[in-house]
Amino acid sequence: MSDVTKEKAGGVKFLEVSHVTRRFGGLTAVNDVSFSVNRGDIIGLIGPNGAGKTTLFNLLVGLTKPNQGQVVLDGVSIGGSKPSRIATAGMTKTFQNVALFAEMTVLDNVLVGGLLRHSVEDARALAEKNLARVGLAAIAGKKAGDLSFPERARVEMARALCTGPKLLLLDEVMAALNETEMDALLELIRSLRDNEGLTFIVVEHHMRAIMNLCNRIIVLCFGQKIAEGTPADIASDPAVIDAYLGSSIDTEVSA
Ligand SMILES: Nc1ncnc2c1ncn2[C@@H]1O[C@H](COP(=O)(O)OP(=O)(O)OP(=O)(O)O)[C@@H](O)[C@H]1O
Ligand SMILES: [Mg+2]
Q1: What is the pTM of this model?
Q2: How far is ligand 1, taken at its centre, from the CA of residue 130, in Å?
Q3: Are 40 and 7 contacting, i.e. CB atoms less than 8 angstroms apart?
Q4: How far are the Cα atoms of 25, 86, 119 from residue 59, in angstroms, in the given order?
Q5: Ligand with the closest atom to the CA of 58
Q6: What is the pLDDT of residues 41-91, one digit of tens each?
């Protein structure tokens, strides 16, 4: 049986997150959260500010250690492992508050991601390829410190792609994009899924993007998972409307 067939048959999941908890002093930022992801999913992770979305991403990629719980990626237990080991296993994330080396060029910032698996020469070629993919080839030589926020978010995405991920966690990469830029990024994410088999978990406050892009949505509130389902289920879930959406929204709008 192929991996995908096994997943569809209800066997091993690509990512299995079980009862993960992270406390900061008296605050439980992520509280007993469990969910699973199939290969090729594009999962939306939504919720109010401070709900624990970035903390959950940090737990998954090893930047923060869970107090409790298990994370298994592609059959390998990675809960509490170092970020480099998790990136090598195929999971990486973009940073919400983009941390680029301001004095270095865009190309050099992106190249860093490729050094996990490649020589400098190969990493450079890969960086050029991924900058073109995110539509930034023309500014490869620009100083990263001179970029706009939307450009920086796309540089972050190119850098993450250079690590060769199987599962990519995107933390608000669409913030501050205009409609055209956002549609281009949605198209890129879909094509990476369709043509290269990548799997995504996407944190985003922009509901049109989330509702059109994702096949399943998980909702966090005060660290707890309060709902999980299709975009249509989530848009009409009274608990989600109450905690986050404010009113029911139209999921039929096309991207
Ligand atoms: N390193 C930390 N130390 C202490 N508290 C933290 C730390 N990181 C996050 N928190 C707290 O944990 C909670 C969850 O924060 P988190 O950044 O994960 O939320 P979020 O859902 O990503 O919010 P946003 O939509 O604003 O990005 C918040 O109350 C935050 O203040
Ligand atoms: Mg966040």
Answers
A1: 0.90
A2: 30
A3: no
A4: 16, 11, 29
A5: 1
A6: 999 999 999 999 999 999 999 999 999 999 999 999 998 899 999 999 999
